[in-house]
Amino acid sequence: MRYTKRLLTTVLLGSILIISGCSAISKKIEQAFAIKSDYYTQTQSGGSIENRYKGLGKYAVESQVLSSGQSRFTTYKIWYPTKNQPR
């Protein structure tokens, strides 16, 4: 009886440690591949055209979410310049 209780405790603690370790590793991997909010300033490109157009424009933008009426893509998000509002 005592051996069974000890074995069960060991297996339970080992499982908890393995699950928490996998969860921590998964979060680290997810953070490593996440797109950062200022990705467009960190991107390295080889051409002058890419460098010209990769940055933000001179106008502030607003967005609107619209329903698509489809099952695969349920919504569309549209960005447009805010009226006469430079950055």
Automatic annotation (TrEMBL):
Protein name stated in the entry: Lipoprotein
Biological classification of the source: Bacteria, Pseudomonadati, Pseudomonadota, Betaproteobacteria, Neisseriales
PROSITE patterns given in the database record: PROKAR_LIPOPROTEIN
Superkingdom of source: Bacteria
